[in-house]
Design brief:
193 residues; alpha+beta; four-stranded antiparallel β-sheet; 7 strands; 39% helix
């Protein structure tokens, strides 16, 4: 679907540019490349369980209860390259593309998976309140993001996906104008930028 959108975008761009005056030769544009990077993002689905435990949460003296419960839900992590860090320089037939490493761009909960059955309180647990559930949920979100950040294969795939789409874009522009562009990649670490 995203590749089809990219091809339509390139086709429209070529058609529009051929309709008017040709004051400037057609070549790869930074704004188009940033749009392609945004299309290249990947949504990864995670199933997660947020556990919460608090010792001696309720009671008096030696008669106390622990608080234990868990929340089960699905989350979506968006992974891709930060399009604002992508850059391009074109000199004759040489195109240099600066691209950051892939990163976690967003993390959210699939709210449809949160039902009454998602919240399970352990038998004999102290009473659970909304503040406890919120804390457990925040911790689970942090864990999902950390799991995605540790998945180096997934991050590498996201970067390669963006590179492939950018490469196809540059080659399609080259074919349209009868030029064979040579692409050189410069890699930057998104965290240092």
């Amino acid at each position: 679907m995203k590749k089809m959108m990219m091809l339509c975008l390139v086709t429209v761009m070529l058609l529009c540019s051929s309709c008017g005056k040709k004051e400037k030769p057609i070549e790869p544009e930074l704004s188009q490349m940033k749009s392609i990077c945004e299309l290249a993002t990947m949504d990864c689905y995670y199933h997660n369980v947020a556990k919460y435990s608090e010792k001696d949460a309720q009671g008096i003296l030696w008669w106390k209860k622990d608080k234990k419960f868990w929340i089960e839900y699905d989350g979506v992590v968006t992974i891709g390259v930060n399009a604002s860090l992508v850059n391009i320089t074109v000199k004759e037939d040489k195109v240099t593309i600066t691209i950051p490493s892939a990163e976690v761009l967003g993390c959210k909960v699939d709210e449809k998976t949160l039902t009454e059955n998602s919240f399970v309180v352990e038998k004999g647990s102290a009473d659970v309140n909304a503040v406890d559930q919120t804390e457990a949920f925040k911790l689970a979100q942090k864990n999902i993001k950390e799991s995605a950040l540790k998945d180096t294969v997934l991050l590498k795939n996201a970067q390669q996906r963006a590179q492939k789409l950018l490469e196809d874009y540059v080659h399609n522009i080259g074919e349209a104008v009868g030029k064979e562009y040579q692409i050189q990649w410069k890699y930057i670490d998104a965290k240092q930028s």
